[in-house]
Amino acid sequence: MNAGNKLRMAELLAVFLLAGCLTRMPANAKIKLKEIAHLDISENVNKNININKNTNNDTSTSKDINTNNLKDAYLIKSENNDLAIVSTKAEAQKALEAAKQYFINKYKLIKDKDYNIGFSEKIDIVKTKAEQNKIISSESAENVLQSKGNCNYKYKILNGENLWNICNREHIDIEKVLKMNPKAEKNTKPGDFVILYKYAYKLGLKWNEKNERDEKIAYSVESQKTNKLLQGKIKVQTEGQYGLRHIVEEITKVDGVDVNKQVTENKVVKNPVSEKQLLGTSLTMPTFALGMFSRPVLGKLSSKFGPRWGKFHYGVDLAADIGTNIRAVDGGIVICAGWVKGYGNFIEIDHENSYISGYGHCSKLFVKEGQRVYAGEKIGEVGNTGRSTGPHLHFEIRKNGTPINPWPFISKYY
Ligand SMILES: [Zn+2]
Questions:
Q1: Rounded to an integer, what distance in angstroms lies between the CA atom of residue 414 and that of residue 409?
Q2: How remote is the CA of residue 383 from the centroid of ligand 1, in Å?
Q3: DSSP H helix total and E strand total for the chain
Q4: pTM for the complete prediction?
Q5: What is the CATH number of domain 74-201?
Q6: pLDDT tens digit sequence for 153-205
């Protein structure tokens, strides 16, 4: 075969492949019917198949084709498919650019967010020679490039596979596949590549997308044993706090499907704070302060801390029936248990941690000065003694001697 014939053979093969691709186009492909009508596809395909069959015979091939009909043209091809033939390179570029924009709109890509936008396969514009009726307008080429059709792709045969079970699984025509892979029938084995086809967009779009998200970081719990708490009790000293991690991922997508994901940034924005807790070990009720106040009485807030009737009310009043239990809000030592003017029967407990709690208007007292009490221990009963207008507990707290509002300490119980 001389060089001229070799060139012609390459051209004929290109024409044949293009015709094959066009025939596999489905009826619903976005092609203007007028434009493709004159291509007379079926006739050309048959003719080209004949030519292809005769490729072993140089003389017959050259006789069958009228080389005068061939014109300079440009073939747009992907890695495994010839897509369209147009007259000029500029038309090819314009059609590809239009197709790219079509897919950008289709997949709703956003400038800045989506980047590295391109076709998923290598696309070439190849100078060729083609019959006039194979050359389509730039507009038709745009439509072809935006359409779906049976597209060839390379497939590596896996262990346990053969062409028959692959075709069966993919619902594709084995006869067609055998024609596309003339040597395949006898020689294919796992690891070999074959050309298959699938119904898909002729051009795939590939792009990268940034995905930013925050992830919680768990905190650890540090426990410390203490005999200040009853066994089984847990006291949280410092609440644990979740940390935060900022993650940036780069996702590569083809036609909207993730094909690769890579973390490009993984930054700790906030460190977690360990939870610190005390684990009780004591088998008896400790009579020293635990550092938190429990509920002194089951009652209803009837008077707040603050100015009242032109004076200052240095505690809160908790209304309850006479005889309702009054309990020490924390462990400590009783420093007052008796009658105090205004307060009536009054109890004071020094918690030995700068806090002193006071309980006024009691009907009964169950503790004596100097007695140690544990948190929650019954110390008296609600009464109406002293300057009181009804049964209630007057409850107060002093910190380093200064009366402070007890409500924030005990309100969670009410
Ligand atoms: Zn009061």
A1: 11
A2: 12
A3: 10, 24
A4: 0.48
A5: 3.10.350.10
A6: 999 999 988 888 899 999 999 999 999 988 877 778 889 899 999 999 999 99
